[in-house]
Amino acid sequence: SVWGYDSDNGPERWHENYPLAKGDKQSPIEINSKDVQHDSSLGPWHASYDPGAAKTILNNGRTCRVVFDDTFDRSVLRGGPLTGAYRLRQLHLHWGSSDDHGSEHVIDGVKYAAELHMVHWNPKHGNFAGALKQPDGVAVVGVFLKAGKTPKPEMKRILEEIDNIKTKGKEAPFQHFDPSILFPKSRDYWTYHGSFTTPPCEECITWILLREPIEVSSDQMAKLRSLSKNGENEPVNPLVDNWRPPQPVKGRIVRASFK
Ligand SMILES: NS(=O)(=O)c1ccco1
Ligand SMILES: [Zn+2]
Q: How far, in Å, CA of 72 to CA of 109, rounded?
């Protein structure tokens, strides 16, 4: 059966069809502040996104994804650990069945309710498929979502669309959206080299994980959990716990832009 997050097709079995899943540079990882190295040469990262690049929002049965036009340098990420401008291709989320877990990366033992990934690729490698084969091919900005009392207004656009993409395969127009409104105040980040957290788990990602979580409300988290893994003519199967657990660090260095 196609890979997923259930006992018969979940992260512990991905390696049976996707051997890279057992590689030495897999993601996510647990970050322990005591092992992190501050790197004063790490400059600030900069996102310059064109709201007009946003195209559609999709439920693919495994996450909720917003897709952007990446046919030219229209929405790009640069700076930080990166060389050159990486094009924004899509953003998506991973979340839990309750507010006390759901993130993929774990910070000093803390699991957040969700983790937002903004996926960018390096156009020097021609196209996205080519970038997947390169160690500097992809850059993902990770933003942690902490469940609290205050809703995040900037999440409303995405959450309002949920009702139109309840079931697997449903897609809706999603335009005039600048995802940088989702960033927290602080630009502080950790960075390390890793992989896609979903099969085929290619080890082509420079991860940029923002230290400051954004706060969302429990109701906003519940909205995400109202998505279904199944199609419209199938039984409702709540789309929750679509996160991969932390993988072996295998001696990798995690650097911090902050002290
Ligand atoms: N979760 S992730 O950001 O490593 C990913 C999987 C596919 C595209 O992006
Ligand atoms: Zn992801």
A: 40
